[in-house]
């Protein structure tokens, strides 16, 4: 197996009236995906896996199409379960997210614990790698669970200091059995 890239979806259209998992990419996010899809940066990718959330599928689909591949949807690859609170205003969300990472064994305001989300995303990674053909693998998902995956792969404790930069649309890569050699980077760095 080649290189495994984990890519978080970029900017979304925040709509408090919709469930968060049904949010779409905004114009900026779509433009960033189109720029990556129009490059040859992902050449050699043999499989594209995605969370079932709309924003992840809207990221994965154009990339897979440019590669001549179908998206393999993995519903359990979703973002950390925050359905207990639903939409939170940005400042309140950031405060709860800080606690989510700082207290990984605690269900903060009913959210899935960081430890449970980390176990889930690590199991999903293993399932994807077992299904993947030869070549590189692209996994399209979300920032929080991506950070939890990064921490697990890098042998680091769960901490928000390893979180992706604001705005989403970031990636890291690794080879199976080896830690990621570098932290999150903007998707434009692939081009």
Automatic annotation (TrEMBL):
UniProt protein name: Histidine phosphatase family protein
Recorded superkingdom: Bacteria
Organism name: Seohaeicola nanhaiensis
InterPro entries, per database record: His_Pase_superF_clade-1, His_PPase_superfam
Matches recorded under CDD domains: HP_PGM_like (cd07067)
Signal peptide (residue range): none
Pfam families found in the cross-reference section: His_Phos_1
SUPFAM superfamilies for this protein: Phosphoglycerate mutase-like
